[in-house]
Design goal:
Helices cover 35% and strands 23% of the residues. The chain has 132 residues and is of the alpha/beta class. 38% of the residues are buried.
Length: 132
């Protein structure tokens, strides 16, 4: 788990927790978040358990959550995060098409789903505008 302390953030910035077991995708997602005006990365996690712990510790506004994770999966991690902090907006991410998502993705408390290939600054901004 990595906490980001090297960036000074405005109190108005949307704080983001990135959760993915692949370092290359976390790096890509971090770049997307940093390119989106008004967003900042506050922490990263590589497993479901780390995501739940980080969400409790840093209280992010937004969580970008991969579905397939080691340990508890992203759907269960989302359930636990939202149960403890219902104001947290969780967006599930995967390489699945929306039609191929696991059935329990619909009722885990996530507010949206974004295909990993579609994660761009404007998509992040739109998701936050709709659900934040």
């Amino acid at each position: 788990m990595t906490w980001m302390e090297d960036r000074v953030t405005s109190t108005d910035d949307v704080s983001v927790l990135i959760v993915d077991d692949q370092a290359t995708f976390r790096s890509t997602a971090r770049t997307v978040v940093l390119l989106a005006d008004g967003f900042t990365v506050t922490a990263e996690a590589e497993s479901g358990e780390e995501a739940v712990e980080a969400a409790q510790e840093v209280r992010p506004d937004l969580v970008l959550m991969d579905i397939n994770l080691p340990g508890i999966n992203g759907i269960e991690a989302t359930r636990q995060i939202v149960e403890r902090a219902p104001e947290t907006v969780v967006v599930l991410m995967s390489t699945y098409t929306a039609a191929d998502l696991p059935a329990d993705a619909a009722d885990c408390g996530a507010r949206s789903y974004v295909h990993k290939e579609d994660l761009f600054p404007d998509v992040l901004t739109d998701v936050w505008a709709q659900h934040g």
